Amino acid sequence: MDRPTDEPGSSAETAHRAQVNDYDSFAEAYSAENENNLVNAYYERPAMLALAGEVTGRRVLDAGCGSGSLSAALRDRGAVVTGIDASAAMLALARRRLGVDAALHVGDLNGRLPFADGAFDDVVASLVLHYLRDWGPALAELRRVLKPGGRLIASVDHPFVAYTIQDPRPDYFATTSHTFDWTFTGRPVPMRFWRRPLHAMTDAFTTAGFRLTTISEPQPHPAAHELFPADSHGLSTTPTFLFFVVEAPPSATGSGGVSR
Ligand SMILES: C[S@@+](CC[C@H](N)C(=O)[O-])C[C@H]1O[C@@H](n2cnc3c(N)ncnc32)[C@H](O)[C@@H]1O
Q1: Which of 25, 82, 196, 231 has the most CB atoms lying inside 10 A of its own CB?
Q2: Mutate to test the pocket of ligand 1, among 109, 113, 128 (most ligand atoms within 8 A of CB)
Q3: Among the four given CATH numbers 2.60.40.1840, 2.30.29.30, 3.40.50.150, 3.10.129.10, the one describing domain 11-158+198-247
Q4: What does the mean pLDDT of the chain come to?
Q5: Distance 253 CA to ligand 1 centre (A)
Q6: Closest residue (by CA) to atom 8 of ligand 1?
Q7: Measuring from each residue's beta carbon to the nearest atom of ligand 1, which residues come in under 6 Å?
Q8: 3-state secondary structure 210-234
């Protein structure tokens, strides 16, 4: 199975002392940054919305919804959205954005989800799967809560980027963790991500019974070039995130596999 490694260096040492991925401690700052920045607002979110397409009337689970920016955009397009996230502070921001009646749940994607079988037409999972060491249990749950033929639309750190930024480079074919600090208002916050090879991602989807329909490396939104002239060229010419659309089989007896 996976061969996890922690990268040496000051960030990792910090991470061993402090809690990693503590979104509760930087929810406000993360959400503010995510709201209008190049990478989330003019690249990741538009790409997810484009992959989701027409969602009017569809029941959508936003898995790892954070402060609810994608949920809000989907709701604006007519979807009936439910959000789940491990961070109570991120969910509090989502509730502020989406209103007191919004269906929002604190929960860990590693565990059983508090939803019935087939409860959703679509699941969106923006930038959350790379926090999970093992995708198997989470994907099995996401498939369970999707109706037959339902879609999981996911974005993750591009596996080639997560491989090349590490020095020394890890074994590409292993699943490894890497740890480094994000900085919010001058304060370092230790983050840990799980990097896996591309085939491990596609294998995880098909093992969970999904059928792979799309792998996407989209371009930023056209407005990005005018709004972010210094950085949009780099984002346009360098892999950053990888996007997947996978489908639950149309019936309970269907099997997974790559579509042709
Ligand atoms: C990079 S943020 C993305 C938030 C949102 N999807 C977006 O794109 O704006 C990652 C989110 O995943 C959540 N998260 C991380 N690990 C999780 C887990 N095991 N279960 C549920 N949520 C998790 C974090 O709390 C955080 O809100």
Answers
A1: 196
A2: 128
A3: 3.40.50.150
A4: 92
A5: 31
A6: 126
A7: 23, 34, 64-66, 69-70, 85-87, 90, 108-110, 126-128, 131-132
A8: CEEEEEECCCCCCCHHHHCCCCHHH
